[in-house]
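Any chance you'd type out a single protein's sequence alongside its tokenized fold?
>
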Amino acid sequence: MDFHNILINWYLQNKRDLPWRKTADPYLIWLSEIMLQQTRVAQGMPYFFAFTKEFPTVFDLANASEEQVLKLWQGLGYYSRARNLHKTAQYVANELNGVFPENYKSLLKLKGVGEYTAAAIASFSYNEAVPVVDGNVFRVLSRYFDIESDIALPATKKEFAELASELMPKDNPALFNQAIMEFGALQCVPKSPNCMVCDFNGSCAALQKKKVADLPVKLKKTKVTNRFFNYFVLEDVLGNTLIQKRTAKGIWHNLYEFPLLETDDIVGFEVISKAVQNSVFSSYTIIGIEECAENTVIHKLSHQHLHIQFWKVKISEKIENGVSTSELKTFPFPIVIYNFIEKQEINC
């Protein structure tokens, strides 16, 4: 079939100059693939450079503290990726003498490495003939072959993997995998692709049937939960504040935040004032409470929308274990809190 020849020819003429494409080092490829899960290339690139500068080898990453890793990851989101990254680096460094597994099945055993990431490392580092199947691949193949299978179903992933394997030239799987992902990222994009300049416009089934906008099919909808966070930004006589680590499982595990009151809805001053008086802060002399911003910040995660309000609580005493505003930025925070600190709204 001409599919892979046309695809690879397009790739060689249009591919982006990306740093992880210039190496077969499994450490660097693993690092880039973990970062690019649910992250755009433009957003992930600075983090890749920052990590490779700070942790040039898997041993450097393994020897870092989790807090260092989370701080450097700050802003990429899905922080479980960073925690798994750190644990896997420790495992590879300490249990495997710094040598990554050399095949797809063994790579799957690493924490945080799923089928897609294992396939990417296996093909890019070791040239193993195993197909990568991500959103780009779903889109390209579903449109070209007019496949209406629901990509939210596990059976569909297997269907597409088998198809990609049939199309893949076994003598150069890495090039094919890079090409089909790049084609989905640059040409066969989710919305309004320019099919008139597409190399496949003479053979694409979806284009011929005017179904490009309808494919791929994804029927399962993500249920979104709304949560309402009220952060108490304490300020003592020295200008210091109080932070805490989120140790419970769930979002932002092991990141830092201000003392939190979660409510069932957006609340006003009266509720916050009463909550402060009935909280551990009641041992302090409260001299003022005010909201730090006019509008509630809405921070959207994959399954949750967080409605966040920041409340300045001034006290007349000194906070035990207080943190100065200059020290705050050294801690790993969720990006929405870090942005609040960065804008110096803490001094509202």
About this structure: The chain has 15 helices and seven strands. The radius of gyration is 24 Å.
